[in-house]
Amino acid sequence: MFRSATIFKKVPNSPSFIQLNKIQKMTNKYYVQQLEKKYDEFLEKYCQLLLLYNIMDDYLEIRDALTIQLNNIQRNEDKLIQQRMQQRRQQEQQLKYYQQQYLEQ
How many other C-beta atoms can be found within 10 angstroms of the C-beta atom of residue 58? Predict the structure, then answer.
């Protein structure tokens, strides 16, 4: 776990501390994107201070977990879209088949 959870509060303009197991449960893509953006901007702006406090790795770990979760959400959305497209194609094929059967009668 993080050795610096209490230090997060001491760093100015620090994004909120997020436990990694909570990040893995997040499903709102836009919320995760905003958090990832906040952490990226914060890391760029306060890099020297974070190195001084020796907590840069903790922030990077949270930001990386957000990035991974965002990619997982996107992958799941893509998978769902693929499944829906496949279902639609199957429905269209069934419709064509039934139309042919009807025309042959």
Answer: 19
Using CA atoms, how far apart are residues 18 and 16, in angstroms rounded to an integer?
6
- Mean per-residue pLDDT, 6-28: 86
- Scanning the structure block, which residue is given the tokens 């406090």? 53
Residue 11 has pLDDT above 90, yes or no: no
Instruction: Please state, in angstroms and rounded to a whole number, the distance separating the CA atoms of residues 14 and 10.
Output: 8
pLDDT at residue 4 in the model: 56
Both tokens of residue 8? 């997060």
Other C-beta atoms lying within 10 Å of the C-beta of residue 63:
21
Angle between helix 29-45 and 56-104 (nearest 10): 150
Output the six-digit token pair for 50.
């974070």
Handedness of CA 92, 97, 98, 99 (dihedral sign): positive
- Backbone region of residue 76 per phi and psi (left: phi > 0; alpha: psi in -120 to 50; beta: other values): alpha
In this prediction, residue 29 carries a pLDDT of: 95
